[in-house]
Design a protein that fits this description.
The chain is 43% helix and 15% strand. The chain is α+β, with helices and mostly antiparallel strands. Among the domains are: 2-95, Dna Ligase, domain 1, CATH 3.30.1490; 149-173 and 222-325, no CATH class. Strands 5, 6, 7, 8 and 9 form a 5-stranded antiparallel beta sheet that branches. Strands 2-1-3-4 form a 4-stranded antiparallel beta sheet. The N and C termini lie far apart (105 Å).
Length: 325
């Protein structure tokens, strides 16, 4: 009875302290503790070691219940669990091994959980970082004061919306339209090979020149200096709203052009036509050096993104003028 109590105390100490194997070894009987033992490890016979050393190897996991032992000089080896003096220690070593395995498995679960949480946190941090970068970029481009700093020196005049007119790609620079939305009359080229004398027929004295019948213009066209019928169905308020909300997207194109042309300073009038589907179909840059090229392509690319509403009837033409420098 007294031996069992000492064993229980040693077991509690073994759970709390790594010196339990030494204490357990001391619980062996004096003869058994001092007795020398041989043990098998694979095909090797090792030893001799004391009974206390065998118990210590049981607790460290170097031996198990099936380890074969025998006193020196003995021919037959038996499992250590079959030796009565070691049975209690074998059971306690097995219990300790199970506890250690459970603790190891728990540590592995905790580590995996931490890795998963760490991965999720890294992904969330990356997403938030990208979102913050996008917000900062948007604020830098569209936020208060952003345009003033980035596009200093670029301004735009109020737009003028008129009916679209036919133009040739090779047309010379024309005067920018006034706020009334009308264009100055363009000089018509004189037919080649004719002189004023050849165009005016000679009328004999006393004769009355016959009047040449003239064609009458339609009433609607007569009211318009360009001879266009004023049957419009486009929404000028909507066009003005879209232009006002998107015109600064063209500032980037002008800034890039200014970088390509150091010291560039000019007034750059443009005209573009809005198709019935609400998309910009044609563009003219009324500047002799910028009719074609990177600035024209940049303007056209940005203008095609502007969300005008579809409409019916005559096509709408919008005139803008930018000042750079």
């Amino acid at each position: 009875m007294r031996v069992r109590m000492r064993v229980g105390v040693a077991m509690w100490i073994g759970d709390k302290d790594t010196s339990a194997c030494m204490v357990a070894g001391q619980e062996l009987g004096g003869d058994l503790s001092d007795q020398q033992w041989l043990f098998r490890q694979g095909d090797l016979v090792l030893g001799p070691v004391s009974g206390q050393q065998l118990v210590e190897r049981l607790y460290t996991g170097e031996m198990n219940a099936g380890t074969l032992i025998a006193p020196p000089g003995a021919r037959d080896f038996v499992p250590i669990a079959d030796v009565p003096a070691f049975k209690v220690h074998v059971a306690r070593a097995q219990a300790k091994a199970r506890v250690d395995a459970e603790q190891h498995a728990e540590r592995q679960r905790v580590m995996r959980k931490r890795l998963i949480l760490g991965s999720i946190a890294a992904v969330v941090t990356a997403v938030l970082g990208i979102a913050a970068w996008q917000v900062a970029r948007w604020a830098a481009v569209h936020g208060p004061g952003a345009d003033e700093d980035e596009y200093a020196g670029i301004s735009v005049e109020l737009p003028t919306i008129t009916l679209a007119q036919r133009r040739k790609d090779s047309e010379e620079l024309i005067a920018y339209p006034s706020s009334s939305g009308t264009r100055p009359a363009e000089p018509r080229p004189k037919p080649s090979g004719q002189t004023p004398s050849s165009t005016t027929p000679t009328v004999p004295a006393g004769a009355v020149a016959a009047k040449t019948p003239t064609e009458k213009k339609p009433a609607a066209a007569a009211a318009d200096p360009d001879g266009l019928q004023m049957a419009t169905e486009f929404d000028q308020d909507n066009i003005n709203k879209v232009v006002k909300g998107n015109q600064k997207t063209l500032f980037r194109c002008l800034k890039e052009e200014a970088q390509r042309r150091p010291g560039f300073a000019a007034k750059v009038p443009i005209e573009f036509v809005i198709g019935n589907d609400g998309r910009v179909t044609k563009l003219w840059v009324d500047h002799p050096q910028l009719k074609q090229g990177p600035l024209y392509e940049c303007f056209l690319t940005e203008l095609k993104k502007w969300p005008f509403k579809p409409y019916k009837g005559e096509l709408a033409s919008v005139n803008l003028a930018f000042k750079v420098g």
